[in-house]
Amino acid sequence: MKWNLRMVAAQRDLWRPTEVLTAFQQVGFNPSLSKVAALWSGTPVTVRLDDLDKMCAALNCTVADLLQAEPLVAGQAAPEFGQRAVGAEERPSAAPVRPVPRGRRGAGPRSLPPS
Fold first, then answer.
1. What pTM did the predictor assign?
2. Residue 54 to residues 30, 45, 61, 108: CA-CA distances in angstroms?
3. Does residue 10 sit in helix, strand or coil?
4. Which residue among 11, 66, 83, 90 has the highest number of C-beta atoms inside a 10 angstrom radius?
């Protein structure tokens, strides 16, 4: 998911990250200016759910307005139902595939974990 903060802020007549920061502080959300700038540029940023609610209250929007799905890369197929693990072989049976650990290159026993 990509942040869509710039478009939502523009609908509220907020044109700079500092103006958005002021709006956030008015509802009790005090992020750093660098976090607001990252949100502004669409960079993936971690936000707590209660802070996301405060952001929506400050911008008078919904969570769906703030988040935008990223488009698929050209030539990339849409994910199919029943995805397989990486390296899994195609099997016609409906039984789930269990993971198998890789073999060791050395022939000796494994060492004990540090204590």
1. 0.57
2. 10, 16, 10, 57
3. helix
4. 66
